Amino acid sequence: MRKIPVIWISFSNEDIEFEKRSGHPGLRKLNVLPVTAEELAALIDPACVLLDMKASTFEECLDEFQPVVQIHQAVVDSQGFLDQVRQREAAVSTAAGEGVAFPHARTRAVSRLFLGIGRDRQGIAFERNSPLVHLVFLIGTPPEGIAEYLGCMALLAARVRNAVTRRLLMRAESPEAFLRTITGALV
């Protein structure tokens, strides 16, 4: 049996009704179970893995994701989703260090969990005077999908924390090889 971590998370005013009902103003207590490698593999479409990004800024990065976001079935409002991602990034950078970033939005602009992945060998400046980002995991979730989103983040963060995995991801020659690496399957 897998251990389920308990996570307390602070959210914005849009959650005020839940917060009032829960008795925890500004906080939610969630039992989060990381998604399995198999669940992650089922979630990601190889067409949503961009291995040859040429962006140098966060805005250019989102521009490169635009075609993928526009055609994905989980995204009901591509411009709304990307605008929410921009707003989130403006509030706090999602660059997590080690050349990895997790830009995301919790929004009604997606109907279910969405994950797009990008790799930029030259690096993307998410923030001025900060290390460049080479691996981007663009995530969207509807407001009620927070536990699934956190489970996905838990697995992705665990995978990219490993320097060997990051090197393999940077060397992957196809979206399928990238996905085998990130999900933990043999490459």
Explain how this protein is built.
With 187 residues, this protein is of the alpha/beta class. It folds into 2 domains: 1-31, no CATH class; 35-183, Mannitol-specific EII, Chain A, CATH 3.40.930.10. The protein contains 7 helices and 8 strands. The chain has helices at residues 16-22, 37-43, 58-71, 78-91, 146-160, 163-171, 175-183; strands spanning 6-10, 27-31, 49-50, 95-97, 100-101, 104-106, 114-124, 133-141. The strands form 2 sheets. Strands 3, 4, 5, 6, 7 and 8 form a 6-stranded mixed β-sheet that branches. A two-stranded antiparallel ribbon has the order 1-2. A hairpin with an 8-residue loop joins strand 7 (114-124) and strand 8. It is globular. The two termini are 27 Å apart.
List the helices and strands and how they pair.
Blueprint (H helix, E strand, L loop, with lengths): L5 E5 L5 H7 L4 E5 L5 H7 L5 E2 L7 H14 L6 H14 L3 E3 L2 E2 L2 E3 L7 E11 L8 E9 L4 H15 L2 H9 L3 H9 L4
Parallel strand pairs: 3-7, 5-8, 6-8
Antiparallel strand pairs: 1-2, 4-5, 7-8
Helix pairs in contact: 2-7, 3-4, 6-7
